[in-house]
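User: Hey, quick favor. My workstation is busy. Could you predict this chain's structure for me?
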Amino acid sequence: MLQATDLTIRLHANDDVVIARGEIPADTVLTREHNVRVATKIPAGHKIAVRAVAAGKPVKRYDQIIGFATKPIAPGEHVHVHNLAMGDFERDYAYCKDVKATEFVEPQASFEGIVRADGRVATRNYIGILTSVNCSATVARMVADHFRNNLQDYPNVDGVVALTHKTGCGMASEGEPMDMLRRTMTGYAQHPNFHAVLSLGLGCEANQLNFWMNASKLKINEKLQAFTIQDKGGTTKTVREGIARVKDWLPEANKVERRTVPASHLILGLECGGSDGYSGISANPALGAAADLLVRHGGTAILSETPEIYGAEHLLTRRAVSKEVGEKLIRRIRWWEDYTRRNGNEMNNNPSPGNKAGGLTTILEKSLGAAAKGGTTNLVDVYEYAEKVAAKGFVFMDTPGYDPVSVTGHVAGGANVVCFTTGRGSVYGCKPSPSLKLATNSRMFSHMEEDMDVNCGTIVDGSESVEAVGERIFRLILETASGKRSKSEQLGFGEDEFAPWVIGATM
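Assistant: No problem, here it is.
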């Protein structure tokens, strides 16, 4: 546990920098760091050099390279974008080197879940209106809006939610972009948190409903319906038909009851957004500790955001249960290097301006902190975006770092709970799966308490350990899966955050 009296946080004895716990005035002497004198005012969460680093030499945090000095750095200097930058270096992937037996817990923890007829377990009970194309978005919203604040007779139904997006046409009818969109739609259409799903199309779009259903091996049934605006004769008739279908579903949907089920039925999405210099010290490792607990209780945890594990991927390949699994991850890294190159970009496009204001300098530094969300257990599989997650344990899914797109992939893969860490104060929610917001620092938690579910800043303050906060997060995950509403659910977030990944040209 960190000492509350320390001005700085040192993460490893080999590090060249320490992190300011709060703002540190110029000329402050850091006695704990062998009387290093601070050269300029250091903002909270930012880095201070504790040893000299020559120009061109690597700088370490977490005992890992976070960048290279662009000019000589003296002890006591502020280390940030003005003197630290990206650089290429070899990573030793050492496949499977750190694999260890998982210490499973018996008896498993449990939660109060909704068991569907086919055995799948839900944490929420929605009816979904899913669109094939942006052209049917307004009609889908009209159907859902009819039931907004109008479900008093159906207390066991969490809502009727319209999941709309900006694509589905102006693209090739076949190929990787369309495959990805259809895979995402299929994951939502089959998600256990939906009692039933109505899919609405326009009728002439590239993403034809029947093509999607054939490609995904879906069939119309009593809980999956689909039709188009053009077939029904226009907006009013389609809305009327959509409302009638939902009304037919509501009485049966309301009959659900929660019952005790093991934690092994949980699939947890791990996300970070609006990160700061504390993310890799408090909320991310605490969430990693919670993920470890879930895995030990038989559940699944999904790490993702491939651009935000770039530079830390060698730490994950060492935990891969096989070389094949590790190589699947590296293939996704190589795909991203090519993807950014052909789009005139680079992997260090991250961190964002907000991340940098919070103390993060390079994507290497951000990635090392982000990867901490994945805990310490073995990496058992790697999935493409929105691919159905079948493995138990710690897995990786290839997604962008953009939060709504990343979590949309998690949920399509089956995530029925999400945990989202933030240092700057991202506001986010997700339907149909509840999302918990974890604050990295106490100041932001107090400032934005109506949006934050957990204060992990107690780790930085020195009043709690990473393990203790991880246990708190794990218990809240179980409570939330049992029906306790998250802050974002109370605020009404979740429909507009549905954002399938668009990778192809819009024509």
